[in-house]
Specification:
TIM Barrel, 3 domains, 8-stranded mixed beta barrel, two-stranded antiparallel sheet, elongated, transferase, EAL_dom, membrane
């Protein structure tokens, strides 16, 4: 009964919460900033290792120099996170990175001055302050921009950016001044409260030691290093441990059980979460996608650096994998504390760097105790036992449903599901790649080539003339290889579809104005995702791109896809109505293939309906043609143009015409073509007819 409840309720809820987290923009901003300092953390770990090696070899000056260097890296981390939040926000919202970075740093400096009048520079800051100032500043600027757009329509988008920057900075400065002058005592009391609250995590005894384990491991769920978050506690804890060991050597005091080295030995094997056990579990699983990750993560884990594994597996924003990540070091703490308390193993008598490999660190810190080394190996095995069911389930292969196309090579590959097989009906809800993996795919895509536009003609069947062009996105690699838009799912997963749609809209309109001005009375059809329809920037960007006139008789058309569920239908209906008032036609794409077909017809203002290719394939069935006729009659009732997609044979074309359809798009007429090929087609179509052709046409 308990197992069934665990499988059907707890894990299902945890996985559902993961979906929400992966699509939460604040969580995305935090993860983006924590990923930015991963290289910094790795370099810092290597520098500490170099310091330990130099100290062991007797190069004391070099050891001190390396240790001071790692302190500089540590101080720089919050500032880097603050800046990267601004960069992430700017890219996501198509804003100026310079303005966003300036606003984020300015907010940080103002907040720093509120807390300390003597603060002259902003390297002495905490990560929570860096994250909070970055998010608050940029969110406030977004709110100000929205309200300024409501007040009036700006001809130049730069005006709104500049004005919102100064207005936002003024609001922050004014608000901070009010707090400083009128509520300073409350700020002081609040800071004192948090300082006293942190004492509960200071590991003075067994129970507080448990809280300290949680403090070090739980923040990793958001990609935040517990040591970086509560550095003051660790600094004081380390200093106290050094004094205790020094007094013990002098014979003035007994050794404490708890010390930073105690946690490094028993709770941070391979890094926070005892991830060396996780690496062993992954190695035990044959043929899984994470074995390549281990080529980087495993050598670093020997020196207790585990950021590549935490972000690559991932542990971050994974409500399921965070369970063993916390439970493993907690179990190790309970066993090691009990063994030390009962004097089965000696107490820590030497300060050993956290970057020292596990068995060697235990041997040195315990005064060369073989029993302590044996306990270390037992705890490593215990960690494997805890991690294994979670890892085994998360790496289950599903070859039938999880084939994918590599973005760069074009080869088919097999992806591993991140869900748990025992959760009913969950595999079709969550995409195979995590949010972090999607970001990496996007970065790889953007650095290995460029986006280009293709156009697929739409033909009027009465005279076989091209009357519209649908814009399609492709990726061209550096070696010239063209990849279809299989990559769009990564942009959907990361919430960046508006960036793609805006780019396509702007570049397609510019291309039409520059290269297709000789063609007249055409429609340019641009696909708009549900994410873009609810983006607050859409109306402003549409007005901007439509400021320059299109060639004679050209119209812009937005295709909203019926194969994806719209999350805010009321808002979408309002946006589409405003678009039509701007002279933009609205087409419903993929009709008959997705969600709530009739609901779409009655709710949204539509000018054209594009019947999905499934309607064409259905013609091969006994009642397929009758069904198509009824669908055409239904669409005719709401007075929309009807276009059918995917016509590839003459027989299909004959049936489509017999059903009363006038517009067609398919390989029988034209495949998606690059811009220059479409320009040639349009030039031939609009070429004046010779007298001979005119007489023939008149005769016909």
């Amino acid at each position: 009964m308990i197992k069934e409840w665990l499988h059907n309720n707890l894990l299902c809820r945890l996985n559902n919460s993961q979906i929400k987290l992966l699509n939460n923009r604040y969580a995305n901003a935090i993860i983006a900033s924590t990923m930015a300092i991963v290289p910094l953390s790795i370099v810092r770990g290597l520098v500490i290792t170099a310091s330990v090696i130099c100290d062991t070899a007797g190069f004391n000056n070099a050891a001190v120099w390396f240790m001071q260097l790692q302190i500089g890296f540590l101080s720089l981390a919050p500032l880097v996170m603050n800046i990267y939040i601004a960069v992430h926000w700017a890219v996501r919202n198509r804003l100026s990175q310079i303005y966003c970075i300036a606003l984020s740093i300015s907010t940080l400096m103002i907040f720093r001055r509120i807390l300390d009048d003597n603060a002259q520079f902003f390297l002495d800051i905490s990560i929570p302050m860096a994250l909070a100032s970055g998010i608050i500043g940029n969110v406030l600027q977004e709110v100000v921009s929205k309200n300024l757009l409501k007040i009036r329509q700006w001809k130049d988008n730069n005006n709104i950016t500049i004005i919102s920057f100064f207005v936002t900075l003024g609001i922050i400065a004014l608000f901070s001044s009010v707090i400083k002058l009128g509520a300073e005592i409350y700020v002081t009391n609040t800071m004192n409260f948090f300082s006293s609250l942190s004492l509960y995590f200071y590991p003075t005894d067994f129970l507080h030691g448990i809280l300290y384990v949680l403090l070090r491991s739980v923040p990793w769920f958001f990609g935040l290093h517990g040591y970086y978050l509560f550095m003051d506690i660790d600094v004081a804890f380390t200093a106290a441990a050094k004094v205790n060991i020094s007094e013990w050597h002098a014979g003035h005091s007994a050794l404490n059980i708890l010390s930073p080295v105690f946690y490094d030995m028993w709770c941070n094997s391979g890094g926070t979460g005892n991830t060396l056990s996780l690496i062993i579990c992954i190695l035990m699983q044959k043929k899984n996608q994470h074995r390549r990750l281990l080529s980087v993560a495993a050598p670093m884990a020997l020196f207790n650096i585990n950021e590549p594994l935490i972000f690559g597996f991932p542990i971050v924003l994974n409500p399921v994998m965070i369970i063993p990540f916390v439970l493993t070091p907690l179990s190790a703490y309970l066993v090691a504390y009990g063994a030390t308390y009962m004097e089965l193993i000696p107490r820590i008598s030497e300060i050993v760097s956290w970057s020292t490999p596990g068995p060697l660190k235990v041997w040195l810190a315990s005064g060369h105790s073989p029993v302590a080394v044996l306990l270390y190996l037992l705890l490593l095995a215990l960690g494997v036992i805890i991690y294994r069911p979670f890892v085994k389930s998360s790496l289950k292969q599903s070859t039938a449903d999880n084939t994918d196309l590599d973005l760069l090579t074009g080869e088919m590959k097999i992806n591993q599901p991140t869900d748990f097989e025992m959760v009913p009906n969950y595999s079709h809800v969550v995409e195979q790649n995590s949010y972090i993996e999607a970001q990496r795919k996007i970065e790889k895509l953007q650095t290995s080539g460029q986006f280009i536009l293709y156009f697929q003609p739409q033909v009027r069947l009465t005279d076989r003339k091209i009357v519209a062009l649908e814009v399609l996105l492709r990726h061209q690699s550096d070696d010239g290889k063209i990849t279809p838009p299989v990559f769009l799912k990564y942009y959907e997963r990361t919430g960046m579809m508006p960036e793609i749609d805006f780019w396509v809209m702007e570049h397609a309109l510019d291309y039409v104005r520059e290269h297709m001005s000789d063609a007249e009375n055409m429609t340019l059809s641009v696909n708009i995702s549900p994410q873009t329809l609810i983006d607050y920037r859409l109306l402003n960007i549409v007005r901007k791109v439509m400021a320059k006139p299109l060639p004679t008789g050209w119209q812009l058309e937005f295709e909203i896809t019926e194969s994806q569920k719209v999350q805010e239908p009321v808002r979408v209906a309002e946006v589409l109505d405003k678009m039509r008032r701007l002279g933009i036609k609205i087409a419903l794409d993929d009709f008959g293939s997705g969600y709530s077909t009739l609901h779409y017809l009655t709710r949204y203002p539509l000018d054209k309906i594009k019947l999905d290719r499934s309607m064409v394939l259905g013609l091969a069935k006994p009642d397929g043609f009758c069904f198509l006729q009824q669908v055409v009659k239904l669409c005719t009732v709401i007075q929309c143009e009807i276009l059918i997609e995917g016509v590839e044979t003459a027989q299909e074309l004959e049936q489509v015409q017999e059903a009363g359809i006038e517009l067609c798009q398919g390989f029988l007429f034209h495949r998606p073509l690059p811009g220059n090929a479409v320009c040639q087609l349009l030039a031939e179509q609009h070429k004046p007819m010779s007298p001979t052709h005119q007489s023939v046409a008149a005769t016909v």
